[in-house]
């Protein structure tokens, strides 16, 4: 049984221990999803023909706008999510540059 299946849903928590268990399980899931996302960055680094193509400001803006819209539709603070995604996307771009260089040494 996965950690998330053991953890109670937020509305079912009655103690801080249950909340913390749920947060910790969710954080582990998020890291696993980020591992997959960064795998896509490695794939992009392999596929892109030029180093200059790694940074795509139009794509970056579209990704952040989509995250903001999805967050707001879910009742989450769009500004907070957009700021998080700015950091995520910039970190992904930096990682992709490193991978682009590494794969061509």
TrEMBL record:
EC number: 5.4.99.5
Binding site for substrate: 20, 37, 48, 96
All copies of domain Chorismate mutase, residue ranges: 10-100
SUPFAM superfamilies documented for this protein: Chorismate mutase II
Keyword field contains Lyase: yes
Keyword check for Lyase: yes
Record keywords, A-Z: Isomerase, Lyase, Pyruvate
The protein's name in its UniProt record: chorismate mutase
Classification lineage: Bacteria, Pseudomonadati, Pseudomonadota, Alphaproteobacteria, Sphingomonadales
